[in-house]
Amino acid sequence: MRFLVQSDMDWFASPYVQISLGALTALILFIFAIDNLSKEVVTTSSARVKQILSRAVHHRFLALSLGAVVTALVQSSAAVTIMTLLLVNAGVISFRNSLAILFGSNIGTTVTAQLALIDTQFIGAVILIVGAILRLIGGKLGSIAKPIFYFGFILFALQLLSLSLAPVSQDPRLLSLFVSVSSPLAAYGLSVLVTTLVQSSSVTTGVIVVLVASGILPFDTAIPMILGANLGSSTTALLASVKLDLFARRTGIANVLFNLTGSLLFLAIMPEFTTFVSSFGGSPAQQVANAHLIFNVGNSLLFLLVLPQFEKLILRIVPGSQEQILLVTQYLDPGRRMAQRQHRVRKELRRAARNAGKIFATCLPPWGTQSMHRVSLLEELNDYLDDQIMVYLSKNGEISKNIARERTSIRLLRISNTLEQIGDIGKDLLESIVKSIKRSHADEVKQLLSPALLLIKQQQELLNAVGDSLVKNSRSELFQLQSGLSLYLQRISVAYTEYIQNLSRVNSPQRTLLVDILSMLELSALKMRVICDLLSQSPQVRRRH
After folding, report:
1. Is the separation of the CB atoms in 248 and 85 below 8 Å?
2. Domains along the sequence of the chain with CATH
3. pTM of the entire structure?
């Protein structure tokens, strides 16, 4: 028994076990610090970060710079990439404009490699303590305490990792394990695998620089590992994009192709690249960190210059005819006169009416997995347009300078709000259908709703007619719309009657679904009638009458 205990003690006292435990502990702390810093920055400034990114995307170089800065703050290109994917999926950023942010996020990851070169034991400890003190003080300072604390934690963990690995540089048997990965392609593949597992290129590159600084990892092996870390970091976003819409999936594929193409290109010119990096001088660790920076800046600028061609390539790889729904206005440009503004509002309202029509069109079979997401985006767009129209019409207080124009502005605002409500009804309609499909089957739901399917299609046509009437402002156009609405409401009444007559033949537990759908269609038609009444009050319509 004593022999067994002594053997166990000898095993734990082994220098290899001590080094492994120390390095593993430091690595866990490093990953923990990076992960929590990312969460803290994203959580405390999520809305602000999203707002900055969404505004910057219209200029590719500004988007590149902001992508780099935000990633440097968050310490995770994966977090910024996923945030960009979600903004694309939510219609805040277009697929085209998201690409420059992705390029910039790779530049932001180079900060960790540079930090790993600093003797951070003292600095990291001081920052860590400052963060803890600010947390105790609380108040406004308490909100920034955690990010500061975790940033200090990153620096401290890097130094701890470096100290724990120091004995390895003096043991030839351990060094041979690292030297054995001498093939650039093997080193590249190993780094891709490790980065995919830890889900952070910042972690991989930080550890690589520490290993080189400790004399454990050869410089020639570290460079392809740095390249592989960039590709490995893109797998997180790729997995996250699988369940998102077409444009978010394109962004995820673009991120992988960007990192894959760039890293393989630099891997192909490895001798020339290492010679170029070495020309800047510095220690092997400094050269590795410089290689990381040069690769990411060079690769990002290269793809930025061929951005249109790269976009076309992604569109071929991930084809699709789906329209991207973006939360932007199309016609609300500043005008000198209120009359011009009101005309532009009418055009934007026509767009809102057509969006509402698209919502109802999406309620028709076949019901795909992305139907609910598309309807949610269209409904959110109409909410956005409703808010922007109100701001646009009331800008500089012009809404109250002329009584006639004020009344017209109020009518337009009421129409905008009514169209937003119609969109809400369409969304509720699809939600009812989706819930019914989950309880039974799509074919059964389609059969139950067969009397209403034509009515749903006509709903879209009527909403398109509402949009045309808003812009044309014609009495004859409005009369045709009113006649069409009256006929439509009569058809709904007939559908109700036929449903009651055939109710005894329907044995489905969801036989009330048709009534719910008919009532929603009737409610939206009545709201369209309200819009017609508001349009009929227009002075232009009355004069033409």
Report:
1. yes
2. 7-317 (no CATH), 338-544 (1.20.58.220)
3. 0.75
